[in-house]
Amino acid sequence: MRDLLYFVALPYASIALFFVVSILRYRNDPFSYSSLSSQFLETKQLFWGSVPFHIGILTVLTGHLIGLLIPRQVMLFNQVPARLFILEVTGMVAAFLCLVGLIGLVYRRAINSRLRANTSTADLVVYALLFFQIITGLWVAITLRWGSAWYVHTAVPYLWSIFTFDPQIEMVSELKLAAQLHIIGAWVLVGAFSFTRLVHVLVAPIPYLWRPFQQVIWYRERK
User: Which pLDDT value is given to residue 212?
Assistant: First the structure.
């Protein structure tokens, strides 16, 4: 029953929340689809937190996505030990980079009174969930080596079984605690996603590439 709760009920509840809340929020309050940037309050320390965090998390997510979409090609790629080692090192470096960036972002908010005043409960929840995911991810990477090899044989079939509404939890239920906590944390993050500033990921400003230049009209004499 515990495995069914964590690896079947939780995923479907999280996915339902993700889609329903995302759609309702966009329809009812589209201007809240933003990262709610605090750059105008403080800039210097933001760079040293935001840049490594985004580079690290995008690298990690890309690696997970590649394994999910083309598992067979990843298996073939990993048949050469040197390639597997490169993937392992790249993933760990990206995870540490993400952790350093997140610590920088939290530290920035902790030492700046203006930022603390503009920090919501949702922000704190996001930081906690991200910390949990990064720490458990590093725990997996350090204690369960060669993750890119076993990931495509265990987690990927499980994820596809969830998406095809035919849950197969046998493989993930046998994983070590670190991997199970990482999977559970991912589903919790998916469920909380649409309630937080993370929704800005869904509305990348691609239209700015072809949008005409903004025209500014001055109604008073400029000095």
Answer: 78
Listed as ranges, residues in the chain with pLDDT below 50 are none
Residue 214 domain-assigned (yes or no) = no
Q: Looking at residue 67, which CATH number applies to its domain?
A: 1.20.950.20
Q: How many other CB atoms are found less than 10 A from the CB of residue 84?
A: 18
Residue 206 near residue 26, CB atoms below 8 Å: no
The answer to whether residues 115 and 38 touch, using CB atoms and an 8 Å cutoff, is yes
- Round to the nearest angstrom and report the end-to-end CA distance of the chain: 72
Please tell me the pTM assigned to this model. Answer: 0.86
For 206, the enclosing helix (H) or strand (E) is none
**Residue 150, CA distances (Å) to 91, 125, 155, 210 in order:** 14, 30, 8, 43
The verdict on residue 215 lying in a domain is no
